[in-house]
Amino acid sequence: MFKQASIVKLLLLFLLIFGIVKSESNLDYDEDEDSTATAPVEGEGEGEHLDARGHRPVKKKQEPFPSLRPVAPPPSGGIRYRARPTKPPVAGQKKEPVVFPDSGGCKHASEELGVLCPTGCELRTELLKQEKTVKPTIQDLTDKVKKLEQSSTTIYAFSNILDERLAKRQKQIRDNQNVISEYNREVEEHYSFIKENLDNNIPSNLKVLRGIVDILHQKLVKLDNAITSQLGECRTPCTVSCNIPVVSGKECEDIIRKGGETSEMYLVQPDPFVKPYKVYCDMTTENGGWLLIQNRQDGSVGFGRTWDSYKKGFGNIASSGGKNYCDTPGEYWLGNDKINQLTKLGPTELLIELEDWDGAKVKAQYGGFSIQGEANKYQLSVSNYRGTAGNAFLEGASQLQGENRTMTIHNSMFFSTFDRDNDGWINPDPKKQCSKEDGGGWWYNRCHSANPNGRYYWGGYYTPEMAKHGTDDGIVWMNWKGSWHSLKKISMKIRPVSQS
Ligand SMILES: *[C@@H]1O[C@H](CO)[C@@H](O)[C@H](O)[C@H]1NC(C)=O
């Protein structure tokens, strides 16, 4: 009896997971994955769902024991910048203003700074011009309407009198036939007055009104055309919707030293041979100068992407939160080639900030951070942990012991995506890859203690049944919230090591 019930339960659970997998098969991170090869539910009780996951325990004797790869420590200890000057050398040079290169055309003066979308200034000018002529016309129209109203009132009064007199006349017809002619004459007079009013006054007023309506119509057509032409201009080159500051530099620390003190989108050029590109610089947290390389905050960007996508970067750098500059970072991955190049410039530190769905915040900071080039599979190297989130990269998941823990260490790992398997999970099944199961591109071992590029789960808590492969594929930092709480926000920022 009990056995039957549990089989039925298992079947239902399996169907449910199969359904979830099918309904989400449009996600691109593991399209090629066989959807039935999932559900690690066999033999597991319900209570085990909240267990620490992250690792893939060694089951068979023939599986090679996981071991860590050798990796050179990141360049650390050295400094790239001396301490920042407390006062700017020349007050006037300190901060350059935000550019508005052309108040009319709204195009950026410098080509490599990109083309700005027209900000609507032209439209505003046009509207202001139109307003000047529309206003007196409306005043005139108001006067005319008032006059018309007055004459209508007069007519109305006369028609009332007429009514009264008609009534009187009818009464008097009976009394005195003689007065008929007299009244008739009077009525005729009133009639002719009313007729005159109707024939002359009202049509002439109507004519005036018609003219005004025509003028207004023409003006509306003009305004409409102005708006259409503005929209037309916007359509094609609308790649940037806010102004980019003139101040630029190799990276964000360079920019803050040159006077860029607001946290917003900047152009950086780490070396003269690469095209400048856009990044978000955090100029406030812990003294500023941070270059955002990864950001999750609302699930607006999918992170289940290809090797090529992670190589080049993806997502939205920043947008305007109401100001005329891009002050709000978007969700993005800067790109492995760019991160590699930035860490090649010299000793670099890494700041990872995390926030859960209750608004609690912790951080993990690594005094040394570098990643290799594509030829070395973007191998990760970190050092000198400090912080409150837990040292996932160097020590693995605190919930696991021994080999299980070792296989969740990220330091020294290669980068893996669902279409490029470089993880530490050596097994004969090509379908069993960390990136396929855990949702994003990352320095997977076997597999993770931290999964910042995992799937975004609204609300935070999720279960193996909700996950595509029954694995902890959320935005996980095991050392802080375990395997089954996906973070609300996580970001990774880098900065050149400098003297404090
Ligand atoms: C590793 O994890 C598995 C199950 O997840 C467990 O059975 C095994 O005892 C663990 N090994 C160690 C050394 O903790």
TrEMBL record:
Question: Which Gene Ontology molecular-function terms are recorded?
Answer: cell adhesion molecule binding; protein-folding chaperone binding; signaling receptor binding; structural molecule activity
Q: What is its main location?
A: secreted
- Source domain of life is Eukaryota
Q: Any stretches that span the bilayer, and where are they?
A: none
A GO CC term?
external side of plasma membrane
Q: Name one GO biological process term.
A: positive regulation of exocytosis
Q: Which residue range or ranges hold the Fibrinogen C-terminal domain?
A: 243-498
Could you list this entry's UniProt keywords, alphabetically sorted.
Blood coagulation, Coiled coil, Disulfide bond, Glycoprotein, Hemostasis, Secreted, Signal
* Locations listed in the record: Secreted
Q: Which Pfam families match?
A: Fib_alpha, Fibrinogen_C
- Keyword Nuclease included in the entry's annotation: no
Segments carrying the region annotation (Disordered) are 28-97
Thylakoid as UniProt keyword? no
Signal sequence extent = 1-23
On subunit structure and binding partners, the annotation says:
Heterohexamer; disulfide linked. Contains 2 sets of 3 non-identical chains (alpha, beta and gamma). The 2 heterotrimers are in head to head conformation with the N-termini in a small central domain.
User: What is the designated name of this protein?
Assistant: Fibrinogen beta chain
Which source organism does the UniProt entry give? Anolis carolinensis (Green anole)
Q: What is the lineage of its organism?
A: Eukaryota, Metazoa, Chordata, Craniata, Vertebrata
The UniProt gene name for this protein comes to: FGB
